[in-house]
Amino acid sequence: MLTTNPFDDDKLREECGVFGVFGSPDAAALTALGLHALQHRGQEAAGIVSYDGEDFPAHRASGQVGDIFGSEDVIKSLQGHRAIGHVRYSTAGGKGLRNVQPLFADFEFGGLAIAHNGNLTNALAVRERLVKRGSIFQSTSDTETFIHLIATSLYEKIVDRLIDAIRQVEGAYSLVVMTQKKLIGVRDPLGVRPLVLGKLNDSYILSSETVGLDIVGAEFIRDVEPGEIVEITDDGLKSIKPFKPVKSRFCIFEHVYFARPDSIVEGTSVYDVRKNIGRELALESGVDADVVVPIPDSGVPSALGYAEASGVPFELGIIRNHYVGRTFIEPTDQIRHLGVKLKHNANPGKLKGKRVILVDDSIVRGTTSTKIVDLVRQAGAAEVHMRIASPPTTNPCFYGVDTPSKEKLMAANHDIESMAKIIGVDSLAFVTIDGLYRAAGLTGRDNDSPAFCDACFTGDYPIRLVDHQAENKDRKLSQLVERQSA
Q: Where, by residue number, does Mg(2+) bind (predicted)?
């Protein structure tokens, strides 16, 4: 019996999610709820650190939030009026409990816990400089770079040390930081990664998305601004802006796939943007058909928009099984090859004899698209046309998304006609980059000054790729490999 992944998810994996609470006796429980709402941003591991007035109780583990924090005893062990939490995929540093956040360290000013969404593009270069000065790293996560920069800073105040640290790093990041007296939120100068501020009675909340506020009943106050530090203490909230203002470059893939559709990001409804993308697809690449079918769940809003704009009926021609995890015990290779049916199953009554338009959010490697098209054809579809609610993904992301290398990205190695043949569809079309921008409320992409980070589609990287371009970019970090007990 082998433990395998029976279906290839073939998606860009969400970066991570962060959450923080200041000023509530139920801080840990609220944080666990917030992480539940952010579970889509990371399903590999989760952790919470609280502060009880003397110590920093912590609980971190591999797995999903409900399994890790479903016990009343665990929540009771995380006492205190403030807490921060994190859900993750291993976008930098790899797997292993030592990389599960929040990370914690004891400084001369006391304890500090930190959780990070994003990726530093010069983490290796900074790390090597710190190691030469005597720093001893315990993890391979780029988040630990912040801890060592804070430790070696010559400034006295914690916030000044943090500013000193973030001035030395490059990349995309949203941080939540907790000390004995403070909860601090930080966004990178370009605002690539999201972070919002809310309030629940007298408590302040920080969350990667507004859905984290919704689940605990908190009021949305505002987005933390690009390059802003919000410092929360018993005296209230203070805003610090240590960087010179620059034009923001929020990650447009948050609108396409990463964020939950019921989130509001940068003042815009994710659901509305996704429906608008579907409308743009219908205008740009409409085709005669009998039915519009989403590839669930992320393709649903765009398929609805396509159906409304085209007048072609919307149907759930593919049903998703929501009770399949990422691993499965299987006895034979034959069963493993049936894996796609564990997650998606055709609804033959809505497909047989029909000219079908399949709508999905993206194509990464193309493996799942091929399997689903085959599923639809086996159900009797007369024609299969695929429409994608994002431009072709031709470049990897270095800002906190687990992206395959360029040679594994289908659109980087094939033109659209070739992709259509490989996937097995009668036609294939992607929304244009201008159409994507129009769906987000703009007139199109300003190539001289884009409003979003869209590097995965355009190759226009707004932040230097220091480590990627370095001669030693492929150097493997040393790490202690521990056997986890059952």
A: 298, 360-361
Strand 183-187, strand 196-200: pairing: unpaired
Q: Are 230 and 237 in contact (CB under 8 A)?
A: yes
Residues annotated as part of the active site: 16
Q: By C-alpha distance, which of 319, 259, 327, 269 is closest to 295?
A: 319
Binding residues for [4Fe-4S] cluster: 251, 397, 453, 456
373 dihedral zone (left: phi>0; alpha: psi -120 to 50; beta)? alpha
Query: Distance between terminal CA atoms of the chain?
Result: 17
Strand arrangement, sheet containing 82-88: 58-62, 45-51, 82-88, 16-22, 203-207, 196-200, 219-223
Q: Binning pLDDT at 50, 70 and 90, where does residue 475 land?
A: low
Model's pTM, two decimal places?
0.92
Query: Sign (positive/negative) of CA torsion 468, 470, 473, 477?
Result: negative
Residues in the annotated binding site for Mg(2+)? 298, 360-361
Rounded CA-CA distance 8/1 in Å is: 19
Q: What is the 3-state secondary structure (H, E, C) of 26-50?
A: CHHHHHHHHHHHCHHHCCCEEEEEE
Q: What is the DSSP letter of 244?
A: P
Statement: residue 20 has pLDDT above 80: yes
Whole-number Cα distances in Å, 102 to 46, 85, 99, 439:
8, 6, 9, 36
Helix or strand run (H / E) with residue 425: none
Annotation: binding site: 251, 298, 360-361, 397, 453, 456
What's the whole-number average pLDDT of the chain? 91
Nearest CA to 34 among 197, 181, 210? 210
Say if residues 87 and 11 touch (Cβ distance below 8 Å): no
Supply the Cα-derived Rg of the chain in whole angstroms. 23
